């Protein structure tokens, strides 16, 4: 009966968000409360579970995600993202321009949240298309594949960042494994796949013609790359130094302090504020206004994460999570594949990759925590891969891509949906291969 209640909860969440267009945060709260009633939690205890779930998941994430949003917004508004794009295109040349745009999506996509990266970078794709006369879809898919990889696999993006503490994984190792899996994935789903899309011609809407910042107003190449990649460098360095300095007790507190994701994002933001802002003549007031706008952009994502935490806590407090974990243990399938499959099913039903990842995590977390043989870092990536699969008409990204590139539904399915499915499938294959060696 309890398993049936979970199925009903997921079905209710699908109906509320996909059928009746209820705000995801409200939908999660309604589903969590309904689930608590069905699963037998006393009525007076349900609000406590909801509040505990929301506070528990946001407690460790709010600062990281908010700092990451501010950091990415400054990267965009300062012109650092445009500078990175220009340098990579110049370096690769027109022959390898699709690869240059893939690298742009990767480097710029690490600090930028997906929707912000999409809105910022897609007009740059159109600018390149106008200059080179190459098909916009052929140029855009490599960049969007890279953005999808960073969104699904790499901290500090919301979904992987939220999954790390749920599985008691390591942020730095998850990032390193994500890079190992993500780089070949975006190469195949991006430049290699896009070769088959040259016959898809589109006329991007003139509305999305980019407003280019003059070259003299852009930050330097070294500064742009260094600041944009600073969080990755700090997290990776901390993961490498931790085992190397295991016996050097005097250095351990410093590595732990500066390798903590919160400190990584705070230090990165302080350096970016000075080097991309104050040092280039921007006032502190204007920079703070940029940060305020960034917080407005990320508020919806934070609420969705909070709602997912409430539903997860209902499952935990009712005991159904433990029951599900015990049932999954007996299924003769790799647990990483199970996590991927659950995220895939929810993604197809709900559309949102973030919601799919967080909901799947709430279901499989007890299994991961109860089984030392399951690598929690790889489970983060497996669920991330599943949450990117089979994007279709209930995914906002599907419609953004269709409208920006001015495509038909058939063309959108043939390019965008296939690309997202390639990313999710290759991501799973990469995770399973990595599981053999780590």
Automatic annotation (TrEMBL):
Report how it sits in the membrane.
Answer: Multi-pass membrane protein
Keyword RNA-binding assigned: no
Keyword Nuclease on entry: no
Where it sits in the cell: the answer is: Cell membrane
What sections of the protein cross the membrane? 27-43, 55-76, 96-129, 136-154, 174-193, 225-246, 258-277, 298-316, 336-369, 414-437
Matches recorded under Pfam families = GntP_permease
What InterPro entries does the annotation carry? Answer: Glcn_transporter
**Key words, A-Z:** Cell membrane, Membrane, Transmembrane, Transmembrane helix, Transport
The entry's family comment says:
Belongs to the GntP permease family.
Q: What is this protein called?
A: Idonate transporter
Question: To which species is this protein native?
Answer: Cellvibrio zantedeschiae
């Amino acid at each position: 009966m309890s398993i049936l209640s979970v199925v009903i909860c997921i079905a209710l969440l699908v109906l509320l968000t996909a059928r009746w267009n209820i705000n995801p945060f409200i939908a999660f709260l309604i589903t969590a409360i309904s689930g608590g009633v069905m699963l037998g939690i006393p009525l007076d205890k349900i609000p406590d579970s909801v509040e505990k779930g929301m506070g528990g998941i946001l407690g460790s994430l709010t600062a990281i995600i908010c700092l990451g949003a501010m950091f990415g917004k400054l990267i965009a508004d300062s012109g650092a993202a445009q500078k990175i794009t220009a340098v990579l295109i110049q370096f690769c040349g027109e022959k390898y321009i699709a690869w240059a745009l893939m690298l742009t999506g990767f480097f710029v996509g690490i600090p930028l949240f997906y929707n912000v990266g999409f809105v910022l970078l897609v007009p740059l794709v159109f600018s390149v298309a106008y200059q080179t006369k190459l098909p916009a879809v052929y140029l855009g898919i490599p960049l969007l594949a890279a953005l999808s990889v960073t969104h699904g696999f790499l901290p500090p993006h919301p979904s992987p960042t939220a999954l790390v503490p749920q599985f008691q994984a390591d942020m730095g190792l998850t990032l390193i494994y994500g890079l190992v899996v993500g780089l070949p994935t975006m190469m195949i789903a991006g430049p290699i796949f896009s070769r088959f899309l040259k016959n898809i011609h589109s006329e991007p809407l003139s509305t999305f013609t980019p407003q280019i910042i003059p070259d003299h107003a852009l930050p330097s190449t070294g500064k742009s790359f260094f600041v944009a990649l600073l969080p990755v460098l700090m997290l990776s360095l901390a993961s490498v130094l931790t085992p190397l300095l295991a016996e050097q007790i005097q250095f351990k507190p410093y590595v732990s302090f500066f390798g903590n994701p919160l400190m990584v994002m705070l230090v990165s933001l302080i350096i970016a504020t000075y080097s991309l802002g104050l040092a280039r003549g921007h006032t502190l007031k204007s920079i703070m206004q940029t940060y305020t706008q960034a917080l407005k952009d990320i508020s919806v994502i934070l609420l969705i994460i909070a709602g997912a935490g409430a539903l997860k806590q209902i499952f935990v407090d009712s005991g159904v999570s433990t029951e599900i974990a015990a049932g999954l243990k007996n299924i003769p399938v790799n647990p990483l594949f199970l996590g991927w499959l659950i995220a895939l099913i929810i993604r197809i039903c709900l559309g949102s990759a973030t919601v799919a990842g967080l909901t799947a995590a709430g279901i499989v977390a007890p299994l991961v925590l109860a089984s030392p043989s399951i690598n929690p870092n790889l489970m983060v990536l497996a669920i991330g891969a599943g949450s990117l699969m089979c994007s279709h008409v209930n995914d906002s990204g599907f419609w953004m891509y269709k409208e920006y590139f001015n495509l038909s539904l058939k063309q959108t399915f043939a390019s965008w949906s296939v690309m997202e499915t390639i990313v999710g499938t290759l991501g799973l294959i990469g995770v399973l291969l990595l599981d053999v060696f780590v």
